[in-house]
Amino acid sequence: MSAPHISQIGAYVAARLGTAPAALPAGTRQGPGHDRLLLGESCVLVAATGAVTGGPTAQGYEVRLQHSSDNGASDAWADYVPAGPGSASVQLTAANAFAEKDVDLGAAKQFVRVAEATTLTGGTSPSLQACAFVVFGGALTLPV
User: Fold this and answer.
1) Do the beta carbons of residue 26 and residue 95 sit within 8 Å?
2) Which of 22, 47, 96, 139 could form a disulfide with 63 if both were Cys (CB 3.0 to 4.6 A apart)?
């Protein structure tokens, strides 16, 4: 039995920037909200780190999905917890690393965004290059 073959997969997925690539000090930041009802019922949460500067003794980068019914206007953003097994977060502890996590968005509110936390221990003005992406799939209407 062979695996199904899908050509031109781009018509079935929608990649969106979670947080822009940047040299990050320790702290938090959030990306823009994305309407998951238009983009998909599931996603792949992708996190990547690059070079670390300033000589920290340890670094960490956590990326998680948050959700809101109105893009944060009156319904505050909250961490998303899928209904089934698994989580909606990715953690990296090394420079030049990459990780991804499949996430079922069936129980999520209309809008999702990336929230990240960077931790750096020691060093002199340390920073970690990092970014995150969300690749949506399973939309009722194909994304453009």
Assistant:
1) no
2) 47
Tokens of 36: 């998951």
CA 82 – CA 72 distance, rounded (Å): 19
Length of the chain: 144
Residues 80 and 45: their CA atoms lie apart, in Å, by: 12
51-83 core/surface letters (b: 16 or more CB in 10 A; e: else) = ebbeebeebbbbbbbbbbeebbeeeebeebebe
Ordered per-residue pLDDT tens for the chain, 144 residues:
566 666 777 778 899 999 999 999 999 999 999 999 999 999 999 999 999 999 999 999 999 999 999 999 999 999 999 987 789 999 999 999 999 999 999 999 999 999 999 999 999 999 999 999 999 998 766 655
Tokens for 122, please give them.
Answer: 């020691």
Nearest to 84 by CA among 42, 32, 26, 118: 42
Report the DSSP beta bridge partners of residue 63. Answer: 90, 116
Q: Specify the amino acid at residue 142.
A: L
User: Would strands 58-68 and 89-92 be described as parallel, antiparallel, or unpaired?
Assistant: antiparallel
Distance CA 116, CA 19 (A): 8
Q: What is the pTM of this model?
A: 0.90
